[in-house]
Specification:
Strand content: 25-35%
Shape: globular
Radius of gyration: 16 Å
CATH architecture: 3-Layer(aba) Sandwich
CATH class: Alpha Beta
Order of helices and strands: EEHHHEEEHEHEEHH
Helix content: 25-40%
Largest sheet: 8 strands, mixed
Number of domains: 1
Distance between the termini: 31 Å
Number of helices: 7
CATH superfamily: Gcn5-related N-acetyltransferase (GNAT)
Length: 196
């Protein structure tokens, strides 16, 4: 789509969201297979999504980027940090891979690694946390790969498909992330010619 690359590694590039991304995002949000894993109500129109995008551009506490595949530039999802608190140095992590054909291919983990590195080492966050439904084992596995630790569970907190499910709370600290991904971070610094 010709978007400016904000962050990248070998597998994915994170790009600023633009109006051209809106129809694709609306399709994802109205796909029940995608929506069941999200903490949003869905049933979104293009006008509503454009309004969300405009509010996002004006936000001082949220960053959301599009996930594109390096190989072909296809926009397959979004990843973000929400409720960013510079005072408390924490934020909430969120991700959506909207293109079902790309589920289970490691794109979410790759995009998450880029976003977490940015949050911890550019925004100087100390802690990043997330919420995930207990019936999302693929998401939980991806978060564990990134280094997130299980911190709590809200029992039968979410109602989906006629059943109550637990909501799992997970968290990750900057020093944990940097230790786990030290080699990757070194390669990224070499890639961008950075001396951190």
């Amino acid at each position: 789509m010709g978007s400016t690359i904000f962050l990248a590694d070998d597998l994915v590039a994170l790009v600023p969201l633009e109006d051209q991304h809106v129809p694709t995002m609306v399709r994802w949000i109205n796909d029940q297979a995608v929506l069941q894993y999200l903490m949003i109500p869905g049933r979104c129109t293009e006008d509503q999504e454009r309004e969300w995008l405009q509010n996002l551009r004006n936000s001082q506490s949220d960053i959301v980027l599009g996930i594109t595949v390096r190989e072909d530039g296809r926009h397959v999802g979004n990843v973000g940090l929400h409720s960013i608190s510079p005072t408390n140095q924490h934020a909430e992590y969120g991700i959506m891979i909207g293109e079902r054909d790309y589920w289970g291919k490691g794109l979410g983990t790759a995009a998450g690694r880029l976003m977490l590195d940015y949050g911890f080492n550019q925004l100087n966050l100390h802690r990043i946390h997330l919420r995930v439904f207990s019936f999302n084992p693929r998401g939980i596995s991806s978060y564990e790969k990134l280094g997130f630790q299980h911190e709590g569970r809200l029992r039968e907190h979410v109602f989906r498909n006629g059943v109550h499910h637990d909501e799992i709370q997970m968290g990750l600290m900057r020093e944990e992330f940097n230790e786990k991904w030290q080699d990757w971070r070194t390669k990224q610094r070499e890639r961008y010619g950075l001396d951190r």
